[in-house]
Amino acid sequence: MFEDDKDLEPDRVTLTDEEGVERDFDIIGTLQMNGNDYFALVAVDGDEDEYIILKSVVEDGEEVLVTVDDDEEFDRVADAFDDELMEEVDYDSEEENPQN
To answer: Could you give the 3-state DSSP secondary structure of residue 10?
Structure first.
């Protein structure tokens, strides 16, 4: 899988949508939950405040990233990513303890 090293540039993947359009995404987080691997991705040419969550599955012997269709599964994974990603950047504590 991917190593989590904050000193390195984010891993980048190119994804192809249903219409055959390719877009580059940076992997901003990975998560393993209930035996599945999930990825939080932000579009290189998009809004950095929004990210998408995709699930790794094996199809025809090849690893592919797919959308999470089950609402409950998506909510659990999104909550876990929100917790993980917000720990890395805790803006609230900076506002509560401003440096003079």
So the answer is: coil
Q: How many domains does the chain have?
A: 1
Taking the chain (100 residues) in runs of 10, the rounded mean pLDDT of each run is 51 89 93 95 82 94 92 95 74 50
- The pTM is what? 0.73
In a domain, 97, yes or no: no
With respect to residue 19, please indicate whether it lies within any of the assigned structural domains: yes
Name the 3-class secondary structure at 94: helix
Cα four-point dihedral sign 63, 64, 68, 69: negative
- 79 token code pair: 């909550």
Under 8 Å between Cβ of 77 and 33:
yes
